[in-house]
Structure formats: structure tokens, C-alpha cells
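ok so i was messing around last nite and threw this chain in just to see what happens. nothing serious, just curious
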Amino acid sequence: MSTTSMAKGTTLPTSLPWSGLLALSTAAFTAVLTELLPAGLLPRMAPALAVSEAQVGFLVTAYAVASFAGAIPLTVLLRGLPRRPVLIGTLAGFAGSNAVVALSSSYGLTFAARVVAGLMGGTLWAMLVGYAARMVPAVRRGRAIAIVLAGITLALSLGVPAGTALAEALGWRTAFGALAGLAVFLVGWVWWRVPGFPGEPPGAGLPPQRVAALPGVPAVLSVTLLLLLGHQVMYTYVAPFATHAGFGRTGLVLLVFGAATVAGIWVTGVLVDRRLRATLLGALALCTAVMLALGLRAGTPAVLLASVALWGVAFGGAPTLIQTALVDASGPAHADVATSLQATVYNAGIAAGSLTGGLALERLGAGALPWTALPLVAGAFVTVGLGRAHAFPAVRRRT
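result:
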């Protein structure tokens, strides 16, 4: 699809622009994999960088903190610029930062590269959903956004396990080098197949602080934060926890989790429009039960793998449910700003969760990780249970 066909005043095509949407979906895949890949490589990266496994885990923290700190200010700074050059710039930043990680033997330099990658991630997440929405007619907007966000599920279900397997076979530096190459490929794909759009005019829409105060939005953002805190405590340090449990095959654990997220997405797609509140409560209750099971019986391989599978089902659907609740609470007119706020809170949860998990690992050992995560995911469940109807409606509003 040409850029000119998408210019203002022309009619959007009735068919989906698959190539462009898949490019955006692959960008989401690249961002998630860049963020989470160190979680599966802690034992391999730590000796090469001459640091502890917990310090390698802090590379996930560095990415998330940078995304959290940079998403809103960078979005405000860049929103007046044409969209495609900004998108290409973020992908080039991913390519450069992952190349540095692949080549560096210095923890400080690697940490700095992760900060740059986090800034790119914050910028990317603030614009992906809006970009997809502008590429299609309003009647196809939801499907287009779903295609783009499927890159997240593919990264969790296939990307992280594949990256871990590649690192086991060829070394962790090869895995990051492959990520850098993927980002370079994406630069060309986006330039060729993703249409260009002008930047936003100054003063358009409500400022972020007013969107954050809309009824229902604070509750949804609170659930996002609590869930990500609890999830990341465990997910970042799944390798040392699996070793602690006597099951050292981290790649298999991550594969089970990732494959189960696909089932979670499918179940959510069936139920979200009819039973948003009940489905979200079920997912959060399942996450809570999983943390309890991991704390009590992770030493039994069948319990470990079954718990991880149920965790994947629950977590696979939860982000879609939460984002749907957020758009319902904010209204379509403020959805882009609300999504950028959620991206900031999401990365705050990842940063604080990986930091909290690292501290628990160093001070209390891997066995303390599920008990650290348990009250956090339980807090998310309670927040939804007590939430008012405009935050988590039993039936999704179609506005």
C-alpha cells in the first residue's frame, strides 16, 4: 500500500493492509523479546559480564525503567513529527542497542545499551496502537490493533523460548545479534510497506494528567501495576527458580509458559465482549493460585510445569482484558493517551517487579520468589473485585 493512498481526504481500503500491520506486529515482537530475553539467559550472561545473576536481571530493570521514564516525555516531544521517521528511528535504536549488548564485555556498557533500548521501547509502545488504528477504516480498527498486539503473544510463546534455545546452541551473544539483525530488516520493511502519517497538531486532546483522573482509569492502572509487579518477580528469575526446584531446563519452562499464553489469548477473545469482569477475575484468581502452588510444591516437576502452564493461560489473556477495560473507562477519544499511560505503568511494574525479585533472590533465595509475588497478584484480584462498574463492567460497553 502506498503512502499517498493513505493521505488525508482519501478513502481507506476495505481490506486489511496485512504487510504493514505485520511489520508493526513484528516491531512489537522485537520490543518484547529485547526486553525479556535476559530473563532466560541469566546463568550464561553473568559469567561473561563478571556479575551475579541478580545483576543480569537488573538489565531487564534498566530497560523497563527507561521505558517508564521516557514514554510520556518522548511522546510529547516527538508527537509533532511525521510518524514513519519516528518509527524507523526507534527500530534503528533497537538495532544499535542490541548490537552493543551482543559485542560488549562490560556490564556498564551493556547496562547503558539497555537504557537506550528501553527509551526506544517506551516510544514504540506509545505509538503502535494509534498507528494501526490510522491505517484502516473505523470498522476494522479493532482487528488491526489485535494483529499488531499479537506480536506480544508470539514473543512470549515463541520468541523468548527460541531466543533461549539459540543462546544454548550458539551462545547468548548470537541471540542478541540476531535481534539486532531483525531490527535492521524491520527498518526496510517499515519504509516499504507502512504508510506515513503527519504528526499530531499541538494541543490536541486532553493532557495526560486529566485522562489519568477520568473515572475508572486509576483502578485499571492500579490493576496493571499490581499484576506486572507480581508477574515479573517470578518471570525475570524463572531460571534460578527452576534450578532451585530441581528442574533446570529453563527453555522448557519458558516454552510451556509461552505456548499457554496462546490458549489464554484465544479464551479471552471468546469471552472479553460478553464477560469482561468475570474473565479478568478468573485470570487473576488463577495467577494467585499458581503462585501459591509454586511456593508449596514446585519441587514436583508435574506441579511445576502444570502451574507454569496455568500461569501462561491466565497471564496471556490478562493484558487484553485490562486494556479493553482501560479503553472502555477512558472512552475512544482518549484511548491513545490512556494507552500511553498504561504503557508507562506497565513498564513501572516490570522494573519494580524485576528489582523486587532480584532483592528477594539475593537476600532470601529463589524459594522466596512465589511468596513475594503472591500478595501482589492477589492485590490485583481484590482491586478488580472491589472495582466500580465503570472500571470493570460485567458487560463491555460498545462506545
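not much to say yet. The longest helix spans residues 141-170.
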